[in-house]
Amino acid sequence: MTGGGATCPAKPWLSIVGLGEDGIDGLSAVARRLVSSAELVVGGRRHLELAGSLIGGRSLAWPSPIAGAMSDILAMRGRPVVVLASGDPFHYGVGDMLLRSVPADETICLPQPSSFSLAASRLGWSLQDIAPVSLHGRALEGIVRHLQPGARIIALSWDGETPGRLARLLSQRGMGESKLTVLESLGGPQERIRRATAQGFALADVVALNIVALEVVTAPEARIVTLAPGLDDSLFEHDGQLTKRDIRAVTLSSLAPQQGELLWDVGLGAGSIAIEWLLRHPSLRAIGIEESAERAARAMRNAATLGTPDLQIVQKSAPAAFDGLPAPDAIFVGGGLSDPGLLDAAWSALKPGGRMVANAVSLQSEARLIDCFQRHGGEITRLQVAKAGRAGTGNIFVWRHAAPITQWRARKP
Fold first, then answer.
1. What are phi and psi of 110, to 5 degrees?
2. Which among 57, 106, 367, 393 is least surrounded, fewest beta carbons within 10 Å?
């Protein structure tokens, strides 16, 4: 049928088949038929071995990086291709990568239970009540944001060393009484489940294919990354260039992060604004721009300690550092206002509808913010915090005022 914009639906040619540790024994009749009739079967070497007796066409092991196989897959478009994946291909699996190149209506997916589902079923945990985390190919510190008192976490390991490294991390953060359950080769004949506390962890010979379930127990002195903006200043390593806790909480509110957005933190310093931006939601991204190598390294250490190892840092002076960077949804300027062209360059780089927030302490920097306020609108606010402190050696307390902060915030038309 032609005309009227109608199109015939594409016939699925790419099958994405989830495979468990029980191999082909766990596959449905439909999945078996798809694998045996495929002209090309792609998967990890382990998957190809597990399904070897069914494969009748050409097999291709994933190269490194695995995206290198996409040309082979796309060259077979319209002919039967099977990609073998672990468990549920769309839960930290290969499905997302495949569908960036192949429309969904040209594919069919037959998943198996994911490692998370299998682990939860063994422990009797409800999936909606746990935090699923993948540490496979990711920094271990990414789990830090989830280490809340009483939390239950299921973490997909990178290798056999991951459980021990997690135990050491927990102990170092004052969570040594936390309970770890290491689940190895789930769903297969070599399945094994073992338990230990973080501080008493001594499990040996953990196989590479494992998943770790955590029940977090915190001591009074535990270092916890709280859920509210405005983390305690003591959690940050800094040289004095730090947006202090109260001002930081207001600044995060002004930046108003939304899912999936990118922040530029210009004049990164200790990295506190970018780090707290990233902590608001896992989908958020941040690029810190910092000229000082020492400060850039310090900000990266803070990011790892506080659970945001995905912070990107560009060690270069602004605005020259802006060249080639992806356009941001929000920009925070906390340093570098002595450069008269910085704010205009940042405003120009900002996406339409994006937000700009800048904090100034000196009168010269404040004057630049007032100029931007007059030209671009928005709001300009004077922020000042006073905290009680002891006067001398007696029992007399007085208000001690921090230097006032002038904040300009505006939305680009």
1. -120, 90
2. 393
The residues with which 152 forms a beta bridge, in sequence order, are 215
Distance, CA of 407 to CA of 404 (rounded, Å): 10
Which structure tokens are listed for 180?
């770890």
The HSE-up count of residue 40 (CA atoms within 13 Å, CB side) is: 20
* DSSP annotation of 143: G
CA distances from 169 to 164, 218, 226 (A): 9, 13, 17
pLDDT, one tens digit per residue, over 22-55 is 999 999 999 999 999 999 999 999 999 999 999 9
Structure-token pair, residue 14: 């790419």
Residue ranges of the chain with per-residue pLDDT less than 50:
1-6
* Burial class (CB within 10 angstroms; exposed 0-12, middle 13-18, buried 19+) of 120: buried
* Nearest in space to 206 (alpha carbons), one of 218, 215, 196: 196
Q: How far is CA 7 from CA 4, 70, 106, in A?
A: 9, 26, 14
How many Cβ atoms from other residues are within 10 Å of residue 378's Cβ?
20
Please return the burial class of 371, using the count of CB atoms within 10 Å of its CB with bins 0-12, 13-18 and 19+.
middle
Peptide bond into 319 cis (omega under 30): yes
- Short-list 204, 334, 178, CA closest to 265: 334
pTM confidence score: 0.90
SS (H, E, C) 346-403: HHHHCCCCCEEEEEECCHHHHHHHHHHHHHHCCEEEEECCEEEEECCCCCCEEEEECC
